[in-house]
Amino acid sequence: MxxxxxxxxxxxxxxxxxxxxxxxxxxxxxxxxxxxxxRCGEPLEIDCGLEKVADLESLKGRWASRATSRDARDRSGxxxxxxxxxxxxxxxIVTLFEGNTPIYDAPKCAQYAGLTAxxxxxxxxxxxxxxxxxxxxxxxxQAVISGARAVVCASTGNTAxxxxxxxxxxxxxxxxxxxxxxVSAAKLAQSMDYGATILEVAGNFDDCMRLTQELADVxxxxxxxxxxxxxxxxxxxxxxELMMQRDWQVPDHVVVxxxxxxxxxxxxxxxxxxxxxxxxxxxxxxxxVQAEGAAPLAQLFSKLGQANSAPEIETVSNPxxxxxxxxxxxxxxxxxxxxxxxxxGGNVISVTEQELxxxxxxxxxxxxxxxxxxxxxxAGIKKLTAAGKIGKNEAVVAVLTGxxxxxxxxxxxxxxxxxxxxxxxxxxxxxxxxxSGAFRNAPRRVAATKEAIIESVERAH
Length: 461
Ligand code: F0G
Known about the structure:
Layout: E1 16-19, E2 27-28, E3 44-47, H1 56-66, H2 72-75, E4 103-105, H3 107-113, E5 119-122, H4 132-145, E6 150-154, H5 158-170, E7 173-179, H6 185-193, E8 197-201, H7 205-213, E9 221-223, H8 229-245, E10 253-257, H9 262-277, E11 285-291, H10 296-303, H11 334-344, E12 348-351, H12 353-365, H13 376-386, E13 396-400, H14 408-416, E14 420-427, E15 430-434, H15 450-459
Parallel strand pairs: 5-13, 6-7, 6-9, 7-8, 10-11, 10-13, 11-12
Antiparallel strand pairs: 1-2, 1-3, 4-5, 14-15
Helix pairs in contact: 4-5, 4-8, 5-6, 8-9, 9-11, 12-13
The site of ligand F0G has 22 residues, from helix 5 and helix 9.
């Protein structure tokens, strides 16, 4: 935690928590520890009171110069953008120097997806290896400000690992609810190492999320899932960082994987704010890609316009995908995410296990590892390009959400040709479905002789 700094701005003076329903739009003070509108039950977001900025160049210049500063708040790729965050300068920030994640050109993935060029923004380069860190630095800072005694989340693994790390930095008690047997060993190991109390729940992620929400009325517990509007504030800075890295050139498309829908909601908010402030003159089309067996929002999106009433999501009671990070049937932030997609003119689609696995291997061939869920982006971009929804020469950014070491079992099974999805029901006479390793790269056994090694080097691709 860091000492207070000299005052540059006081954003929280005007910031409020606000109901996202236009019919309600109730406002609540930042001090209230609530996760839904107390009047109508709809989700909340923070309105930072951001207005058109008179001197844009000076603001951009200040953000750019902070990247070389030694001040802890400047070095964090989240707190660097503190003018747009709902915290004042005395906030006792809890940081692991999150953000600052690279963008990469990915020519092989571009070709694979039918594009001239493709950019990958790798959020897996964060301190705990996933995009969650940019949100947790804000959520845990708010937990400290609000005097919470414990922080809690439901998770498919990454949220838990991230919360556990930030809670450890802040000396806060941390309890994570994980679906038993459905979290990758690497993510589970992180939560253990960072000292969280881990509860393995006999159920799936959606059960964990439901139980976590039931804790919302316990005054001393702070929930760090994406229902928490402060977490979204941290995550929205990824959009600001991306625009800085692109010299404020707006891409045509930004594509993210979709699970509980916090990431898409946050990026959508970031871009919309930048437009309001005059930092950009339009927003990129924001598209979300889900795994076919866990795609409630893609299903809803494909039926939009058919019903006269407001869209309502049909949850998937038994979601299935090997990309366990996004194995979610009842996404909590779907309303915010759908609003962001519709306002930007983007899409929500799903991809098969095979499409996702092959796209992941293709990202790997760039020398850029990611975890399975992240690869839904490149698989989805390939589909959207084939369908004419993304133009061959358009500027496209795929957001990779997690590091390749988050799920090494998946990677090894793919390359050895043993990756398979339990279907439960009998499909073509089998209870599991093999996902073939179309771009397999398995280790080979070799004799311990110089000749054998040389022969192998000659044959190597
Ligand atoms: N990619 C990864 C690697 C994730 O861990 C998640 C979500 C997503 C994509 C989807 O993002 O939920 O914001 O739509 N992981 C959560 C967790 C659910 O508990 O770690 P989202």
